[in-house]
Structure formats: structure tokens, C-alpha cells
Amino acid sequence: MKLGVSKKLIGVPGIGLTLFLVLAIFSYINLNSFSSIQKRNDELAKKENLITDLQRFIHKILMPPNDYLITGDKKERENFAHLVTEAASTFEKIRLSGGRTSEEIAIADEVEKRFIELQQKAMVLLSTENPVGNKEAAMLMEEMDAFAESVVSKVEKFHDLIKRELDVHNERISKISTWSYRIFISLTFVALVGMVLMILIVTRGVVRPILELEKGAKIIGQGNLEYRIKIETGDEIERLGEEFNNMAQFLKEKINEVKEYSEKLKRTNLQMEQNILHLYTLYNISKTLATTLEMEKLLKQVVENVSQALKLHRINVMLINNDRTEMYIISGIGMNKKAMEIRCKVGEGVYGWTVLTGHAEVINDVSKHSRFKPIQGLDDDIGYLICAPFKGRDQVIGVINAYRLGREEPFDKASFDLLTAVATQVGITLENVRLFEETKTLSITDSMTSLYNYRYFMECLNEEFERAKRYKRPLSLIMIDIDFFKQYNDAHGHPKGDELLRNIAEIFKKTMRKSDTVARYGGEEFTVILPETGKEMAFTMAERLRKEVEANDFECAETQPSGRLTISLGVASYSEESESFEEVIKRADNALYRAKEEGRNRACM
User: Fold this and answer.
1) Is the pLDDT of residue 406 over 90?
2) Which Gene Ontology biological process is one annotated for this entry (predicted)?
């Protein structure tokens, strides 16, 4: 007869539970029996201890009368009373102990009765006055000793009775232990046999078919749809195996459709991921371009984003120089310092051709391209190349070049589209950067002399003053005025006067240090900020400026009162007493005024 899986699985635990209940019931009965016997055994042991105590009291109760007979000390009466109290307590405990037989009761009553008689005799002796040497008292003591021996004999008989009963109980415990051990061994053996049978039933009827089912499912899951599961148990597992076989056949029929759909989905997902990555790259680049007006930082972000998106071996950005004859690399990744110094001629090679045509180009086999001329240090080991030009002011101003090695994948249309889109944005942004720089320069520059204007001078002096004040560093200021400039302007006209201002401005720029700030203060007045410069060095610099101007042959200078064009200078330095940079300006202006008052063409501090 074939059983179902549920009956096998329920039957096996059922047998196990039955065996467990049998062992549990047996253990419960055995424990109760042992508990009852042990309780009786404890009672008998307690009785034996009480009888032993009683024997000890009988011997001890004779001691106070005997000592009284010898010494006559009345304290022995108190000792006797204490022993009698303890003996009475022991008799009470014997009476209260449970499980006494009629024989035990009779012997206990007789012992207690004789003990009372012995107690009375002792009390008579203890009540005798002057017992020492009293013959009657001595005879009474001998009578008490003899009577005590008879009481002890009865107590020993009581002790032997209890001991015999205790031995019987011990023998019963031994027999029950042996019987229980044998039954336990037998039940354990039956349980072990039952467990073995249960394991065999579960193994043959459930475990092996499930393992076969697992094996078949694994083989089918690995793609071997020709495999068929063979289970003959006549139960649910066999039917499950048949369903697996039907499923394998169905999967075999549908596998080609799934493969085709998977390939199509894979291509679609790959294209979608690529498009998302490109859009994200364009977004990041657009965000960078919209928020950054520093060219080097901007181009660095562009090459990093494009290189990551297209998985490039190398990328660089080339700009065209002002005379549009060469291209130089301004930013790049994957190149050494020497490669960053390479120059390419406009019109030569693939890079120069891209600039001339203004059209982007993808080369997926550089070895077969006629215009590709490899440049050492730049085109080493490359196999694929995209050149995307970018424009500003309607003309090409640079090229973005992307490289991959020959062993890597060629560029696809999406990569080409991304790079051209980036190039367009870069061109627009660089034009915006150029306009921003021009606007920024115009806002701080004097249009006539190309020196810094008054507003920038005030901002710069304020910053330098605060820095000098905070860090206790030297700072000086030179105020300059062209001597008799109004007379020169009136005599030769404003165009000549403007030209003179520009010429003097050039002398100032060439003479002063790069760290100095030269500005037009207003009209024919100029000023120079000298950071980290003390008063003496500032005066030396002022004298150098004065001599440079005096030595220069300006047009129409002979019409000036001294026959040469000269300047007057006032020098002032920052001191800890200076409250503000305006005070430094005032002191420099006062020094300039003194230079004029003392005859011009001189520097004063």
C-alpha cells in the first residue's frame, strides 16, 4: 500500500510522540514510587536518630543523681531537670513521627513508662538531704542503675525494630531500582528501533524522492531541458516530478522566444543606460558651464565628465593662439607634462584640418586615415579618435579630442553626438567667459591709460591696509602728479595731453614691480600701492620713477618751464598709529603738496 506524503510525515512524528509519552509516563510513575519510598526511608532514619538520642538521654539522666550522691551539690537537680525536658521532647517527636506500626507504638509506650519510673526514682534520690554517705541513697542509686539497664534493653529492642524496617525499605529500593533500570533500557531500545524505522521510512518515502526532485530541478534550472525526473512513490512527490517534466517541456518550447526578447531588451537597456549617462554628463557639464567663469576650472570639469562617460583612454582640449597659426593643449587627462607642451599647426594633420573645416570627425581606424599623422607623446598607441571643434565669434577657437586604444571598443554614434554637443556648449561658454573677462577688466581699468581706475585703487588699498594692520606688515603709497600738465595740455591740445598720459602710464608699468598696483587717481594724478615695502624702499622706488620720467624724451617736452617733462611724488607708509587707509592717502597727498611747493620734480616723504 502506498501512503501519501502527509501520512508519512504525520505518522513518523506520531510514532515518536507515542514512544515519548510512554517514556514520560514510566518516568512519572517511577519518580512517584521513588518519592514515596524515599519519604518512608527518611521517616525511619529520623526515628533511628531519635532512638539513638533517647539511649544517650537514659545514660546521661543517671549522671546528675550519681554526682549528687557523691558531692551533694544541689545544682545537679537543675541539670537533671534540663535532661528530663530534653528527653520529654524526644518522646514527643517519636509520638508525632508518621508511619508507626502497632509494635512500635507498644514498645515506645513501654519505654516511656519505664523512663518515667526511672525519673521518679531519680527525683527521690535528688530530694534526699545530705546524700553523701547515706546508705539508703546509695542503695536507691544501685536500684536505679539496674532499672536503667532494663530501660536501655527495651530501647535497644525498639532500635533493632526500626533498623530491621529500614533494611527492608533499602532492599525494596534496590529491587525497584533494578526493575526500573531494566524497563528503562527496554523502552530506550524500543525507542531507538522506532527511530531507526522512522528514519528509514522518511528516507525511502520522502527524503530520497525530494533529493531526486531537487537534483532534477537543479539540472533543468541549469538549462538541460532534455532531462526528465523519475520518481515512483505514488504520492504527491511523484506528481510534482511529472509537473516539473511538463514545465521543462514548456520551457523548451518557449526558450527561443525568451532569448530573442532578452537580447532585444538587453540592447534597449544598454542604449537607454548609455543615453541616460550621456544626458547626465551633459547636465553636469551644463551645470558647470553655467556656474563657472574660470576657464581652467571649467575645462578641467569638462574633460573629467566626458572621460568618465565615454570611458576614454585620453582626452584633451586644444585652443587656437591669437594669430591663429597654432593650437596648444590647455587641459587634458591621460597625458604627461611633455605632451601638454605640444603645439599643432593649423591646417596640418587631422587636428588642423578639423579647425579649417569646422566639422567634427570620428576616426575608428587611425591607421587607414590619410590625414592622420601621429604626434609622438600625443597619439601613442591610439586606435580610435574623435575631433570635435567648438566656436566663438562665429569661428573655430578650439578642438576637443577623445582617444581610445586599439584593443578597446570603437566609438559609436552616441559617443560622437555627446562630444559634439559638449563642444558646442564649451564654445558658447568660452565666449561668455571672454565677454565676462572683458567686462570685468573694463570695470576696473582706466580706458585711456589701461591702468587700474580709482575705484579699484580704493578697494585694493583697503585690502592691503587691513592685511598690513592684521599681520603687522609694511605698506607704502606713492602719489604722483605731472608737473605743469595743464600748461602742456593748453599748449598742445587734449590729444597730445592724452598721448602723454598713456606714455607716462607705460613707464610706470615697466618700472614698478609685479606686486605693486599702479592706478590713475584722476586727471594727471597717479598712485602706486607698494605691499611689503617700508618707507625708505618706497622713497627709493619713487626716485626711480622720477628719474625714468625725467630721462624720457617726450614729444613737445621742451615747451615745459624746465625744458623737460617731470613729475612730483609724495610718499607715505602705514604705521600702527594710522587709523584708516584714508589717513595714509592724506599723508601721501600732503607729501606731494610739499614736493610741489619745494619746486617740483622731486619726491617727498
Assistant:
1) no
2) signal transduction
Torsion angle, alpha carbons of 92, 98, 102, 108, to 10: -20
Give the chain's radius of gyration (CA, Å).
62
User: What is the number of other CB atoms lying within 10 angstroms of the CB of residue 87?
Assistant: 22
Using the 3D structure, point to which of 194, 213, 230 is the last residue of a domain.
194
> What's the CA angle centered on 360, arms 354 and 365, to 5 degrees?
90
* Bridge partners, 518 (sequence order): 528
Average pLDDT of the chain, as a whole number: 81
| CB contact set of 375 (below 8 Å; sequence gap of 6+) | 342, 344, 349
Q: How far apart are CA 532 and CA 543, in angstroms?
A: 18
Residues 253, 389: Cα–Cα separation, whole Å: 54
Q: How far apart are CA 505 and CA 487, in angstroms?
A: 19
C-alpha cell at 95: 509520638
Tell me if 216 is assigned to some domain: no
What SS3 string covers 499-551? HHHHHHHHHHHHHCCCCCEEEEEECCEEEEEEECCCHHHHHHHHHHHHHHHHH
Non-local CB neighbours of 349 within 8 Å, separated by 6+ positions: 371, 372, 373, 375
Do residues 551 and 432 touch, judged by C-beta distance below 8 A? no
Assess whether 428 and 500 both reside in one domain.
no
pLDDT in tens, 470-492: 988 999 999 999 999 999 988 88
Res. 66: pLDDT tops 70: yes
Q: Are residues 452 and 599 in the same domain?
A: yes
Measure the CA–CA gap between 79 and 60, rounded to whole angstroms: 10
Burial of 537 (0-12, 13-18, 19+ CB in 10 A): middle
Residues 54-65 have pLDDT tens digits of 777 777 777 787
Task: Give the model's pLDDT for residue 1.
Answer: 47
pLDDT value at residue 387: 92
Q: How many CA atoms lie within 13 A of 299 on its CB side?
A: 20
- Quick check: is 271 in a domain? no
Same domain for 373 and 475, yes or no, is no
CA angle 82, 72, 139 (to 5 degrees): 95
**SS3 state of residue 332:** strand
Q: Is 356 in the same domain as 464?
A: no
Q: For residue 479, what are the domain limits?
A: 445-604
Half-sphere exposure of 515 (CA within 13 A, CB side): 7
C-alpha 211/C-alpha 215 separation (Å) is 6
Give 290-328 pLDDT, tens digit per residue: 666 677 788 888 888 888 888 888 899 999 988 889 999
Rounded to the nearest 10 degrees, the angle between the axes of helix 5-61 and helix 102-126 is: 30
CA-nearest of 314, 313, 403, 392 to 355 is 392
Q: Tell me the C-alpha to C-alpha distance, in Å, between residue 92 and each of 54, 108, 325, 326.
A: 11, 11, 134, 130
Does pTM surpass 0.85? no
What cell numbers appear for 297 in the block? 576650472
CA distances from 360 to 85, 138, 348, 393 (A): 127, 148, 15, 18
Question: Do 405 and 510 fall into the same domain?
Answer: no
Mean pLDDT across the stretch 549-565? 88
Spatial contact of 533 and 515, defined as CB atoms under 8 Å apart: no
